[in-house]
């Protein structure tokens, strides 16, 4: 196991949750590193949008790999990659691509059991993700953060189903569990009391405070494309204002 991977895994064992900086290119990665973040996570949504694509594996693996190479070269802190559903339905192909990610210096991946079909996320049979995790484990020690899309797809028994899937993914070889949109302290506490793997949550307006999440047993917090989207909204506003008022101060600040 390389030093970067060992360091990344250790960041999930502290009492305070790992605050992951979600980035989309080399420059945003360097800014996050200089700000003091200990680890990075690429945002599939932000990377895709920055390259002219919609989220949902529209960007090719080769294009994604190019972006990730530039990020890894630009920083010294660990990078985990949002690898969506693995860019293939074939577990062996997923494993081959993950090995390529490892070869360029990536230490972790998010791999999800939901898939975007025609712009809508669909929850898949957990056996599909289990088979992908097992295939990856045969070729790589990379940190696998198994993403459970029960809450994002509004499953009627989201917590109960999340617990069932987390057990299956843990047995298959996952290192962590990511449950986007799990928000209530009650659900989070129940999850961390029943699942031994580190829990990753996603920032929302209703999420408990950082300190509270630590006490609830959460080990990692990420924000996906939220910062990127905020920056793009501000950029859109600036572009429109400059075109309208022709004042240089609009651009120069």
Brief digest:
With 253 residues, this protein is an alpha/beta fold.
List keywords for this structure.
single chain; 253 residues; alpha/beta; TIM Barrel; nine-stranded parallel sheet; two-stranded antiparallel sheet; globular
| Biggest sheet character | 9 strands, parallel
Strand coverage percent: 15-25%
How many distinct folded domains? 1
Strand arrangement in the largest pleated sheet: 1-11-10-9-8-5-4-3-2
Please identify the structural class as seen in this structure: alpha/beta
User: Helices and strands, in N-to-C order?
Assistant: HEEHEHHEHEEEHEHEHEHEHH
Measured distance between first and last alpha carbons: 47 Å
Mean pLDDT: 97
**CATH fold naming:** TIM Barrel
Q: Based on CA inertia axes, which overall geometry fits? A: globular
What would you give as the CATH superfamily? Phosphoenolpyruvate-binding domains
Number of helices: 11
Count the beta strands: 11
Helix content: 40-55%
Residue ranges: pLDDT <50 for 5 or more in a row? Answer: none
Q: What is the name of the CATH architecture?
A: Alpha-Beta Barrel
Q: Measured on Cα atoms, how large is the radius of gyration?
A: 18 Å
CATH class: Alpha Beta
Question: Can you tell me about this structure?
Answer:
There is one protein chain. This protein has helices spanning 3-10, 26-35, 44-50, 61-74, 91-103, 126-137, 158-172, 185-194, 210-216, 226-245, 249-252; strands at 18-19, 21-23, 40-42, 79-82, 108-112, 114-117, 120-123, 143-147, 176-178, 199-202, 218-222. It is an alpha/beta fold and 253 residues long. The protein has one domain (3-225): Phosphoenolpyruvate-binding domains (TIM Barrel). It starts with a helix and ends with a helix.
